[in-house]
Fold these 4 entries.
Entry 1:
Amino acid sequence: MKLDGVPHRSIARTADGAGVRILDQRRLPWEVVWVELRSAEACATAISEMWTRGAPLLAMTGAYGLAMALAEDGADAALERAHAVLLATRPTAINLRWALDRVREHVLPLPPETRGAAAFARADALCDEDVALNRAIGAHGLALFRDLHAKNPGRPLNILTHCNAGWLATVDYGTALAPIYLAHDEGLPVHVWVDETRPRNQGALTAFELASHGVPHQLIADNAGGLLMQRGEVDLVIVGTDRVTANGDVCNKIGTYLKALAAHDNGVPFYVALPYTTIDRTIESGDQVPIEERAADEVTWLTGPDAAGTLRHVRVTASPAHNPAFDIAPARLVTGYITERGVLERP
Ligand SMILES: CSC[C@H]1O[C@H](OP(=O)(O)O)[C@H](O)[C@@H]1O
C-alpha cells in the first residue's frame, strides 16, 4: 500500500538481499521508521517484541529469519535451531509455523551450502503468494459488500473491525481490510468503526492505514461496538484471524469473541477474512489453540506523543494485570469466512 504516495510492502529484502526491511510498528502511527533485520535472532526479537506483527506478516518475517540463519550455516543442526527459536517467538498465529515448515521442507533435500539462497527464494515466493491471496480475499469480500450495500443504497455501508488486519498485518493489502480498500477505490461508500483494540491499540494502526488511503472511519472504544449494533449502526463486522481450527472456531485478537456475541445478539453478520495459511486442520476446535499471554505492562502502561510530539510512556495503574492476547469466537457465531476461494460457510 502507499505511504505518502509511495507504494510499499510491509516487508521487503534489503538492497543487498541479505536481510529484510520492516516498519517498526511499535512507533506507528506517530513515527514511520523502517528498520533492517539481518539475522534470525533479530527477526525473532522483532516478532516477539511486536516490532512487526499480524499473523501473515509474522510468518514472512520468520521465513526470512530462517533464510538468514541458513545463509550463515546451512547444516541440519543450524536449520533446526533457527526453526525452533523463531517458532517459539509467538505461539498463537499458525501462519508462523506454516511458513517455517514450508521453508524447511524446501531446503532439506538441498546441499547445505545452497540452502541459504534457496530459503530466501522460497520466502520471496511466500510473500508474493500472500499478496495474491489477499487480493483474492479482497475481491470476494467486495462482492459481498456490494450485496450488503444494495440493502441500504442511500447511505454508506457501516463496517466494524477489530484489531489490525490490514496491509500492516500482511505483506500487502491485508485480509479484513482488503475488501474495504477495494470498495472505497471503486466508489462504494463505506464507513469503518475501528475498535481501538486495547491493550496494544492495534486500532490505531488500522486508523493510520484507512486515513492514509482516504477511507472514512472513526476510532471507538472497544466497549462501544455493542451499543452501535443495538442502534443498527453496524451493517457487518469483519475481522482477521490468527488461526481457524478444523471446526471453524476463530482465534483472533482479544475482544473478538465479545464482538461476535454482540453481532449474533443483534443479527449483524460477522465475517472472518483469512487465507488458507491461517487454517489449522491439525486441531479440531478453538479450545486447543495456545493463547499467548503477554506482559502485564502492556495493560498498565500507555505510549503516545505528548503535546510537543515526544513519545512518552505513562502508567495507568500500579495494580497487577493479566494480559491474554487472543480469544476464540466459536464457529456458531461466524456468518462466513472470506477466503481466496470465495465466501464460505465453513473454511
Ligand atoms: C491478518 S491477521 C492479523 C491478526 O494479528 C493480530 O495479532 P497481533 O497484532 O497480536 O499480531 C490480530 O489478532 C489480527 O487480527
Entry 2:
Amino acid sequence: MFERRKPIPIGEAVKRIMEYQLLGVTEQVTINESYGRFLSEDLIATSDVPHFDRAPYDGFAVRSIDTREAALTNVVEFEVVDHIGAGMVSTKLIGEHQAVRIMTGAMMPEGTDAVVMFEVAKAYEKNGIPYMSIKRSFKKGDNVSYSGEDAKQGEILVKKGTLINPGIQAMLATFGYERVTVAKKPRVGLFATGTELLEVNEALVPGKIRNSNSHMIAAQIERTGGIVHYFGKLPDEFDTCFEAVQNALNEVDLLITTGGVSVGDFDYLPAIYEKLGAEIFFNKVAMRPGSVTTVAQHNGKLLFGLSGNPSACYVGFELFARPIIRRMLFSEKPHLRKEQALLEVDFPKANPFTRFVRSSTFIDSGRLKATPSGLDKSNIIMSLSGANSLMILPGGTRGYTAGCEVEVLLLEDQVGSEWPW
Ligand SMILES: Nc1nc2c(c(=O)[nH]1)N[C@H]1C(S)=C(S)[C@@H](COP(=O)(O)OP(=O)(O)OC[C@H]3O[C@@H](n4cnc5c(N)ncnc54)[C@H](O)[C@@H]3O)O[C@H]1N2
Ligand code: MOO
Ligand SMILES: [Mg+2]
C-alpha cells in the first residue's frame, strides 16, 4: 500500500500542536538547584534593595550642611566621632562638624547625608582625637547609595518563563528565596527506531550505522529544558515497536520517536499511530528537511514522529517539539527567535518547499550574517555541529544570491519569539 500525503504549511502545523493544551507544572527547588531552570512565577522584590541608605565608598559620612563653606581657600574641619565598617551600625548622634569614618557598604549614620571619599579628605589627629578636613562642599545625597535605588519592594523584576541565569541567582539570594518556584521539567520520552542502528560502542558492519539521532535529540531536549527518558533503540518490527510505544506513553508527557515515519515498507510509525487510535495532527509538512514529520496525540500525550534522517530529525524537533516544551516551561515566547541576516554565499538550489538551512549566524561589523554550516541534505550529520541557527529560505523556483536578506531562527537564544511565521 502506498499512501500519498498532503503537505500542510509549517505555520499551520505549529498551530495545531500549540492549540493542544499541554500545560506546565510547578515545583519547588532549593536556590542551589535552580540555576538553568525556568521560573514558573514572576520574581518579585520582597524588600527594597538596598534596604537602608549606605556608603558606596570608603570615607567619612558627614552632614552636607556642615560642608557648605568648604572651598580651596577655606578648609573646613570635622571631628571624627565614630568608625564603622560594613555590617556595623553607628549609634552616635552626629552633631555639627562631626563625621563618622565609614567603609563601603556600611549604613549611613543617622543625620548624615553625604560621604566624603578618603581621596578628597585629609585625616589627622589632634591630642589623640581624630579629625579630617575638606576643601570642597558636598550636597545632600552626594556619594550615598539610597535605599531602594536597586529595586523597590513589590516590583516584578523577572517574568515567569525566564531561564534562571547567574544574575537571577543573585536576585533570588538577595530577596531571600531559599526555595524557588520553577517549572517541572517536562518528561520527554525518546526511542530511536531502525534495524540498521548500532550502539555507539559497536563496530561498523556493512549496512549498519551508529545511532546518532537519540544522542542528538537528547541534547536538544536538554537544551530546551526538558528531561530525557531514553527508552533505547527499536528494530523495524511492528509488534515490538507498537508495544514499546504504548508502554512508554504512560511514563512521559511527550514521546519522540526517530525514523520509520515515511512511506517505506518498514516505516511502521503511521500504522502504530493508527492502531493506538491516536489523533493525527499532520503527517506531511511543506518544508525541507523534515517534511515527513508526523505529530499526533493520544490520551493527553503528544507523539512526535521525527524523521530518521538526522538533519530532518534535528529541524523537526526545533520547529515542532521545542515550542510546546518551552510552553510547559511557562515561556510567553516559546518559539525560536527570528532575526534578519545577510546571506553570505550563493544558495542556488531552488525548492518548492520552504527550506530550513542549518547555518552559522554571526555578527560581522555590527551586521548579522548567515552562511550554511555544511551540506544541505536531510541525511547529513556534519552540518549540524556548526549550526547555531536555521536559515529560512522560502520555497520557489529560484535560488538565493549572496547579499540578500534572509530570516534566521536562532537556536541558542533564550529570549524566543511569540509566534514564528
Ligand atoms: N518514496 C518516498 N521515499 C521517501 C520520502 C518520500 O516522500 N517518498 N521521503 C524521504 C524523506 S524527505 C525523508 S526525510 C526520509 C524519512 O524517512 P523516515 O523518517 O521513515 O526514516 P527512516 O526511513 O527510518 O530513516 C531514514 C534515514 O535515516 C537514517 N537513520 C534513521 N535513524 C537513525 C538514527 N537513529 N541515527 C542516525 N541515522 C538514522 C536511516 O538509516 C536512513 O538512512 O524518507 C525519505 N524517503
Ligand atoms: O522529510 Mo525529508 O527530511 O524532507 O528530507
Ligand atoms: Mg523510512
Entry 3:
Amino acid sequence: MKTPIIARNMSGEGDQHLHFMRRALALAQTGEGRTSPNPMVGCVIVRDGSIIGEGAHLGAGLAHAEVIALKDAGDAKGATAYVTLEPCCHHGRTGPCTEALINAGVTTVYFAVADPHPLASGGGERLRSAGIEVHSGLCEAEAREQNRFWFFAEENKRPMVVAKMAMSLDGRIATENGDSQWITNEEARRSGRALRKSVDAVLVGADTIIYDNPRLTARDENDTDFDPAYQPLRVVIDSTGRTDPQSKVYGDGALLAVTDMISPMTKTPFETTGTDVVIFPRDVHAQIDLEALLAELYSRNVQSLLVEGGSTVLGSFFDQTLVDEVWAFLAPTMILGGKAKPAIGGQGPSALADATRLANITVENIGDDLLVRGRVSR
Ligand SMILES: NC(=O)C1=CN([C@@H]2O[C@H](COP(=O)(O)OP(=O)(O)OC[C@H]3O[C@@H](n4cnc5c(N)ncnc54)[C@H](OP(=O)(O)O)[C@@H]3O)[C@@H](O)[C@H]2O)C=CC1
Ligand SMILES: Nc1c(N[C@@H]2O[C@H](COP(=O)(O)O)[C@@H](O)[C@H]2O)[nH]c(=O)[nH]c1=O
C-alpha cells in the first residue's frame, strides 16, 4: 500500500520535505531539457536536516541522479533521498537506482512522480520490499510539468506537438504574396529561436522553405547556432520534393518527408546534402500522412515536435487534432486584407462549441509583443 505524502504540519516538517524536493527539481533543470530521450531527474540526499549529496541526470548513457547524489554524499547510511522521478529498478545502460539506494543504506525515499516506463517502473515497490520507507507524490504536478514532453510521449506513443506562430493582431502570418519577415520584434524572434533548443524536432511545410528559406536551428542571443547536441531535427514536409535541395534547412540533421510521388530526378540531389529522405503514405489530399510521420519521428526518439508553419501545415495538424500545445507570438501589427495568410488554415469546425480551447495559459511581454502559451484542452 502506498504511503500518503506528508502534509504541511505545525512543526514545519512538511515545509522541509517541500524544500528538499524543490531543490531536487532545480537540480533536474541542469539537464536544460536536453536529456532526451531520457527525462530530466534531480536528487538530493539529506541527513539530520542538511543536504549531504546532490545529483542530476544529464543525458542518455550518463549516470542517474541518485547514483551521482549518493557518490557526492559519500556515506548515506540512515539518510533520506528526495528524487523527482520514481527510482528505476532495471538494468538499462546504467544499473538500477533502487539497488544503489538500498546498498547505500538509505532509510527513506521521497519521489515526486511514478515512472510510466514499463521497464523502469516498480522502483517504489522494490524499495519498500527492502524495508525502505517510501513516499510518493510530493511536487508531482511540478515534476510532470518539468518533463511534460517525456511523459506525453511515454503515455501517447507519439511526440507532443507544439504549434508556434508569429502573427499580427489580426491573426495573419504573412501578406497575400508571402511576405512575413518580420512580423514580431527582434527579441521575440530571438526567444523563438532559443525555444527550439527545448524540443527534439522542428517542422515546416514546403512553401515555408520556398518563401523564407529558413535555417530552423536553435540559436543563442548572438544568432549563433548552439552546439549540435542542442539542435533539433529539422523536418520538411514536401510531398513531391519540389523544394530546392540547396535550401539552408537541408544537410546533416534534416529530414525531408516525401511521398511516392517524388521523382527519382528530384531525389538524387537531396541524397548528396546529407538530408535523410523518408517516404510516407499519402493522406486523402495526396499529402504526407501526419500520423505516419509522427510515428516515424517517435521511433527516432522525438518526444516533442515544434510545428512552425506555415498556414496550411498548421491547419492540417489542428484539423487532425494533433496539436497539444500552442506558442503564439503576437505583434501589434495589422496586416489586413482578406487574402493575407491566416495563422492557421485548414477546415476548422462549423460549430463554435467545437472550437479548440486552451488551458494553463501564460502570457509574457516581449517588448511590444506578447507570447501566449497554452495547452490544448481535450
Ligand atoms: N509568421 C510565421 O510564424 C510564419 C509565416 N510563414 C509564412 O507562411 C507562408 C507559407 O505558408 P503556406 O503557404 O500555408 O505553406 P506551408 O509552409 O504550410 O506548406 C504547405 C505545403 O506543405 C506540403 N504538405 C505536405 N504534407 C502536408 C500535410 N499533411 N498538410 C499540409 N501541408 C502538407 C504541401 O505541399 P505538397 O503537396 O507539395 O507536399 C502544402 O501545400 C509563407 O509566406 C511564410 O513566410 C511560415 C511559417 C511561420
Ligand atoms: N516571420 C516570423 C517568423 N517566421 C518563422 O521563422 C522562420 C525563420 O527561421 P530562421 O531562418 O531559423 O531564423 C520562418 O521560416 C518561419 O517559420 N518567426 C518569428 O518569430 N517572427 C516572425 O515575424
Entry 4:
Amino acid sequence: MNPDIVKERQNATFNVEKLTNILDGSPEKTRRRREIESMVLNDPDFQEQDPNFLSRSERYDQAVRKSAQMILKLREFGISDPDEIYYYKNCVHPDRPEPLDLHLGMFLPTLLNQATPEQMDRFFTPAWNLQIIGTYAQTEMGHGWWRCSQRASCSATTPTVLPALTSEDWRPQATFDPATQEFVLNSPTISSIKWWPGGLGKTSNHAIVLAQLHTQGNCHGLHAFIVPIRDMDTHVPLPGIVVGDIGPKFGFSEVDNGFLKLENVRIPLDNMLMKYAKVEPDGTYVKPPSAKLTYGTMVFIRSMIVGQSALALAKSCTIAIRYSAVRHQSELKPGEPEPQILNFQTQQHKLFPVLATAYAFTFVGQYMKQTYNRISGDIHEGDYSGLPELHALSAGLKAFTTWAANGAIEVCRMSCGGHGYSRSSALPDIYVEFTPTCTYEGENTVMMLQTARYLLKSYSQARGGQQLQGSVSYLSRLQPQPVSAGVPPLNIQDLASLVQVYQLRAANLVELAATSIQQELQLRHSQEDAWNSSAIDLVRASDAGLLSVPQALQVSAHIKELLIQLRPNAVALVDAFDLNDKKLNSVLGRYDGNVYEHLFEWARHSPLNASEVPPALTIIVIIKHNQLIGSFFPRSTSLSTST
Ligand SMILES: CCCCCCCC/C=C\CCCCCCCCC/C=C/C(=O)SCCNC(=O)CCNC(=O)[C@H](O)C(C)(C)COP(=O)(O)OP(=O)(O)OC[C@H]1O[C@@H](n2cnc3c(N)ncnc32)[C@H](O)[C@@H]1OP(=O)(O)O
Ligand SMILES: Cc1cc2nc3c(=O)[nH]c(=O)nc-3n(C[C@H](O)[C@H](O)[C@H](O)COP(=O)(O)OP(=O)(O)OC[C@H]3O[C@@H](n4cnc5c(N)ncnc54)[C@H](O)[C@@H]3O)c2cc1C
C-alpha cells in the first residue's frame, strides 16, 4: 500500500462503511451489491483480455461471449430483479456498453409497457430466455426525432396522399393490408433507413421498429411494430431486410450499432404493440388513451441515465483524487519535499466540486428512479396525470446531469496530467462511453426545450391563479422580481436560503422566456416562430444561480474555506463509493495507490512490445543499410547515410 494513501485514510474523520451504506440505501443493500460483484469478478468465465489491446472485431466477439455467459449465469443464480440485473451487467462489462444493452434496456421494457398479454407470451418469454434478441429502432439516417403534427406527411387526421410531399418528407411506413391481415413495412427513402440502433448490426434477430401507421387511407403517426429481422435458426437476414453495422464510432466499440432498410416486409397484424393503440381486423384504428404512451421507454432510460451520470462522476473523481494523493510535484517551499498534488488549491478547486456533484447526482438519481417508479405505477393503473411532470423532469435532468458530467469527466482526466491521457487511467474510456448520453435518448437541447415547454405551461397556469403542486410549486409561491428590485438576501451557510435563491432565479428565467415569446409573437405572429426565436431563453429557463457581486465574492471565499475543510476527507469520500479495482479498471485509481509499478507493467503488455523489432521496421533497417536507395530514389536525391 502506498504510504501517502494509507495516511489519507488514517486522517479521515468519518466511518467510510456507514457512508457506503447510505449511498447504497442500507447495509443489506451494500452486502447484496458486494455479493453480486464477487459472483462476477471471481468467475473465470468472465475473465477477459484487456480491450485496450484488441481490435474492434475482437472486442465485439469478446463482449458477445461474455454477454452470453451473463444470461446463462443470471438464469442459474435466479437473478431477475431489474436493479440486480443492471448491477450484474455493469460488473461483467465495466464501463462499457455491450451488444445486449438494447435488448435488456429497451426491447424488454418496451414489451413490458406496450405489449398485450398475448404478445407478452409470444415475445417477452422467448426474449427473456434469449431465443429472441431484440433492439429498439427509432432513429433514422435523416431524422433523430419526429414531429408528426407539423409534418404534411403525417397527422392523425390527414389522408396519406398529399400533394406537397417531397420524398425527403417520407419516413418508414407500416401500411395495413386487410386482405392478408398484415402490415407492409417500407423504408421509402435513403434518409428513412433506420440508423444507430444498438445490437441491430449483427446481434439481434428482432427489432421494435417505430414507423408511421397507415390504415384505411389515413396516417395515424408513430407506432411500434415487432419486426423479425433474422432467421431464428440460421441468423441470416430475412427477405426484404437489409441490415448491417454502421462502422467504427468515437467509442461504443463493443456495440454493433446498425442500419435497417425495409423492403416490402410483411408482418402479422398482431405484431403491432397494441396495449394502448389498436388496429381492428377491418383496418379501423382505435386511439390510445394518450398518444404520449409510445414514448414511455425513452422516459424509463432517461430516468436511468441520471444515475449513470452519478456513476461516471464517482468513477472519474475516484481515479483523479486517489492519483492526486500519491502524485508529488514541484516544491512549494525551497528545500522541502514535493507536496502531493492534492494539496494545491487549484487541484482541489478542480476536483472537489466534481466530488460534491457525484454525491448530489447520486441522490438525484435515486429521487428520479423513485419518481419514475411511482408515476409509472400510476400509469399502469390508468392514471396518466403524472406523465407530463415525469416527462419534463426526466428530460430536463437527463440533459442537465449528462452535460455537467460530460464536462467534469474531462476535468478529472486533465487533472491527472499526461497519465490521464493514457488509456491505462480509464478516463479516456469513461469519457467516450459516457459522452453520447448527451445525444441519445433525445439530444440535450431538444430535451431542455421539452422541459421548457412544461415550465411555460405551468407558469401560465400559476399566473392564472392555479396552485401548482410538485416540482413546479415554486412558480405559484414566488413572484418573479424585476431586475430593479435588486438581489434577494442570501445566507450562504444555509441550504434553505440557497434553495430559495435558486427557485427565485428559476421563476425569473421562466418569466423572461415567457415575455420573450410574447414579444416575438407580436413581431412574428406565429407561435412556432416565436418559440424558435426565444429558444435560448427557453433552454436557460430549464437550467437554473441570482447573486450580486458582493454575494458572489462571499461565495468564492466560502468555497476556499470548504476546500480546506474537505481536504482531509477527500480520499475517504471517494472510497465510500466502494468501486472495486477490477470494476474501476484504472491504473491511476488503484485502491492501494501503487501507481507507477503498475503503469510500467501495463505498458509492457502493449502489442507493440510483442517483439523488440516490429516487422514493419525491417524496411527502415534495410534503408539504413542503404540496400534500397538505388531502386527507391534517383541517384541525385539519394540519402546520405553514415553507414
Ligand atoms: C424485466 C425487464 C428487465 C429489464 C432489465 C433492465 C436492466 C437494465 C439492463 C441494462 C440496461 C442497459 C442500459 C441501456 C442503455 C441504453 C443505451 C441507449 C441507446 C440509445 C437509444 C436511443 O437513443 S433510442 C432513440 C431515442 N430517441 C429520442 O429520444 C428522440 C427524441 N425525440 C422525442 O422524444 C420526440 O420526438 C420529441 C419529444 C422531441 C418531439 O415529439 P413531438 O411529438 O413532436 O413533441 P411535441 O409536439 O413537442 O410534444 C407533444 C406532446 O407530447 C409530450 N411529450 C413528448 N415526449 C414525451 C414523453 N417522452 N413522455 C410524455 N410526454 C411526452 C410533450 O410534452 C407534448 O405535450 P403537450 O405540451 O402537448 O401536453
Ligand atoms: C452511441 C449512440 C447510440 C444510439 N443508439 C440508438 C438506438 O439504440 N436506437 C435508436 O433509435 N437511436 C439510437 N441513437 C440515435 C440517437 O437517439 C439520436 O442520435 C438522437 O436522438 C439525436 O438525434 P439526431 O442524431 O438526429 O440529432 P439532430 O436532431 O440532428 O441534432 C443535431 C443538432 O440539431 C439541434 N436540434 C435538432 N432539433 C432541434 C430543435 N427542435 N430545436 C433546437 N435545436 C435542435 C440539436 O440540438 C443538435 O445540436 C444512438 C445514438 C448514439 C450516438
